[in-house]
Amino acid sequence: MPQDKTIKRFTFISGCLSWVLLLVNVLFLARQGHEGEANAAFPYLSNLLSVIFILSVFLYQRHHVQRQRSTEFTTPLWGLFVKGGLGAYLCLLFSIGYPGLNQHWVNSPYLLDVFYQVVFGLLVYFLGKAFYTWRQLILYQKTKDVQNQWKWFEILVFISLLVPLFNVEYMNHIFLILDLGLLLGYSLYMSVHLRWVAFLSLDKKWGSILLLTAILASGALFAKFLFQYTDSPELVIDYTDNPFLLLTLAFVLFYALASLLVALFSLPTSRVFEQKNADLLSFQRLSQTIQQGKNEEEVYNMLFESAIKATGADAAWLDIGEATHLDTSQINGSPLDEEVQAMVKAFMTMVHEQDSSAIDQTYLNGELHLLPEFKSLHSPYFSLLVVPLVSAKRRYGHLYLLLEVEQGFDPDTVSVVQSFANQTVLTIENLRLMQESLHNERYKEELKIASLVQDRLNPKTFPTDTWFDISTYSQAAKEVGGDFYDYLQLSESRIAIIIGDVSGKGISAAFHMAQMKGIFHGLMQQDLLPDEFMVQANSALSRCLERTSFITSALYIIDYKMQGVSFARAGHCHTLYYNSMMEDTFYFQTEGLGLGIVRDASYAKRIHRLHYDYNPGDVMVIYTDGIVEARSPRQEEYGEERLKYMLSQTYHLEAEDIKSAIINDVNDFSSDILHDDQTLLVIKFKHRQPNN
Amino acid sequence: MKIKHTISDNTITISLDGELDASSSVLLDEELSNPSIMMFGKILVDCKNLNYISSAGLGVFISHLQRFEDAQIKLIFFNMQEKVRNVFEILGLDLLMTIVSSYEEAVTIAND
User: What is the pTM of this model?
Assistant: First the structure.
């Protein structure tokens, strides 16, 4: 922030300037004392300059000390010690050398004043840095209360700066002493906010203890220097009169001491906290594996490492299925005792045989040495924990953990390992689900393509001619189906129309449907009669259709010069017809066996051809069984009768409208639920147009 | 779909109960593929409770038809419901297979 920078720059300059001016003023004052002559110095100016200096240093630090974001607490402590605390040791060196220095080299009455000013400067810098470092520690994971408490503490402490500013001898005023005493109490209270200590790991705790001791020593040294020379007659200024310095010094020392003691006493328990923290981290890692795109191998590794860390197991292995997937030799290099491993496995098999439900339960034994098998082995292990990796659907394996102490696994640890195992199973299952859905996605894509290809196989448009009007509808129950229809223009006035249905649904039906279309186009090049076509198609299909499959089909050849239609029905649905002359709606009752049912020459006897002369205005409806076998929610069939009735009501409409009326009626009947592929063709014969 | 069979002398009677669709026709296929069925001279299929037959169900009968014929085993359907019979008729199977109305008739034909 630029504002921060400005403040820091300004306070830095004002701090340096005020300290130099203070030194000059003090030296002038000292000279006054020594020589008795008045000069430019005022005693009050020292107070003012010292207050400016203190304020500058504290404000500078206020903006300089960085906010505590991580749990790296030793770094600010180290910074405090190096930048602030070392000043005290510098002063110590100086004070040791002072008598010698004074006697042998400099011998100046001003030396002590200069030294005292240096001590003052370093002390204020140390206090400012420590004060705001402590602020960061106190406000770590702050609550609103703590924040408010600190705000008032800071304000009150700064108010105490008024005392030297007004040049008041606080020792003379009992209420001031009381106030300052209360403030001291407040600072003591602030020292109980030591939340940060709990976040230190064991190593960091030791480091912090060391640093806090060093900081405490620095503070104590500063205090010693401050008070040591107060009564020296040479000194012209006495900073022990400044309650602000005393207060902050007391606070800094209190807080350092409190932190030190708390860190020291929490040393024995920190292992527990670390363990819990590690368990928590392991959980997080396990649960985040899916997002990170890990594979099963990595998940098992993670489980294995986490479980060993949580239990401190001396030996462990993970069986996935029957084989050992991981063991401790891969982690710490010491090979697993195969005899022990075999014995444990044999023993567990025995346990599982005794109680079949035990295989999915955690097994815990803390006194392996009491079992004769293990005793004879001289195995060093006394405790065994076996945790199964199971889900409701599957058994993945078992995790074996061994300890060299008796009753080594406490219930808490066991439940942590169980949770790891559960989380692992969950993660593995999710991973598999995800892969499965990816696979399915691919199949769906391919089916979509198949569906598109098939859709293209059924012609969308028929040759438009004035002799007849044709409208088609086709809907597969699944992505691909077994229904088909097609046409072939045989000559200028003759067209062949085929409709069919392959038994079964889905992909295999779709293949046969495509095959049948090929047969249609191949054979009809020879301009066969409908029954001849069926015989040859049956013969062709006999060679490639599997035994349980068959095809029903009907072939119509319409000759509009002769105004006649001849057709053959091979097991396909009856043709519905409206005769406009007789005003009659009926089904053609022809006989004919489906294709692929009888696979020899005898088929020729079972197929018949019918010829019918049509009149303009006649309507022919051809369809597949998906239409007449459409089911209502009450499992009733649509049926031939209802279809016939529909045509008798709509024959006067255009082919397109007849088709729509029938399809709407079928969909209403079946509540739009499709059980089978549906195909419908409506052909309406028309009057001969004069221009043709 | 429930498939039951009763055996008497040279005759096995298979009764079909329910809907013969794609999944249940697998059961029927297993039943008819059983080699022991070839020991009988006559197979009677009771269709009294057969409510529906899909093309897959028809396919099973069709696929075994030739085999039974070659082994001179008679396959006779009886008690068939109207709409199921209609399916057989449309496909032309009524001319290929023996479909009669009652058990007695089936037995008579079988013993001819």
Answer: 0.56
Taking an 8 Å cut-off on Cβ atoms, the answer to whether A606 and B56 are in contact is no
The string of DSSP letters for A224-243 reads HHHHHTTT-TT-S--GGG-H
Which CATH number among 1.10.10.10, 3.90.550.50, 3.30.450.40, 1.10.230.10 corresponds to the domain A293-435? 3.30.450.40
**CB contact, 8 Å: A570 with chain B?**
yes
Model confidence at A332, pLDDT cuts 50, 70, 90, reads: low
Minimal Cα–Cα distance from A560 to chain B, Å?
28
Interchain contact, A550 vs B62, CB within 8 Å: yes
Evaluate whether A537 touches A523 at the Cβ level (below 8 Å). yes
Domain boundaries, chain A: 70-275, 293-435, 460-685
Q: Does ipTM come in above 0.85? A: yes
What b/e sequence results for A385-400 when a residue is b if at least 16 CB atoms lie within 10 Å of its CB, and e otherwise? bbbbbbeeeeebbbbb
**Mean pLDDT throughout B24-42?**
89
Q: Is the pLDDT of residue A691 over 60?
A: no
What average pLDDT does range A331-338 have in this prediction? 71
Please count the CA atoms within 13 angstroms of the CA of A236 that sit on its side-chain side: 26
> Nearest CA of chain B to the CA of A669: how many Å?
18
Q: Which pLDDT belongs to residue A70?
A: 75
Assigned token pair, B94: 């009524």
Residue range A460-685 forms a domain whose CATH class is alpha beta
